[in-house]
Amino acid sequence: xxxxxNIIQQAxxxxxxxxxxxxxxxxxxxxxxxxxxxxxxxxxxxxxxxLNEIKSSVTTVDIVRYAWFDPxxxxxxxxxxxxxxxxxxxxVKSNDPDLIEAFNKVEQSILxxxxxxxxxxxxxxxxxxxxxxYLRNVLIESKxxxxxxxxxxxxxxxxxxxxxxxxxxxxxxxxxxxxxxxxNCESLSASGESFIFN
Length: 198
Prior knowledge:
- By secondary structure, this protein is α+β, with helices and mostly antiparallel strands.
- It has helices at about 1-10, 40-55, 95-110, 160-170; strands at about 15-25, 30-35, 60-70, 75, 85-95, 120, 125-130, 130-145, 175-180, 185-190, 195.
- Strands 1, 2, 6, 7, 8, 9, 10 and 11 form an eight-stranded antiparallel sheet that branches. A three-stranded antiparallel sheet has the order 4-3-5.
- The chain is globular and about 60 Å long.
- It starts with a helix and ends with a strand.
């Protein structure tokens, strides 16, 4: 995989890398265009600034989620005997305690991120671990879905759904690591060079 790593390492910060025919664990196949060498700390700084902007300007948030309900209407996140799964469409106001809690949870996740381990060898963008090549520290610029995936329906609370909505508005939601192999990727291009997976 040295050729692949060399192509990735030649892409400097701000340059684009194209990942074509990338297949995720749910069977979705997509083409991605990503920014190389995104700075982790700066992404979090920008996310915090965007979070504060949303908090000060949002009036309502529309969410869609699923939950399990007992015959008496009591809501749950887990399946059990007699419970029925339902889809919930809801508009949440800015002063709702659940939305306030969700904002606080996201803010804490930005201010106190989980420790990032450095058990890899390579550059800031490419590393090899257990014989697999990974592309990390990139920001998604665009994504084109070629084949829709089959995603399971998962139930979640109002707070969790609101947390997901908030995170989806922030730069950190586009910060990704890709595992690159012939089983899940067709090709990668950067700096005028291409690598075809066989």
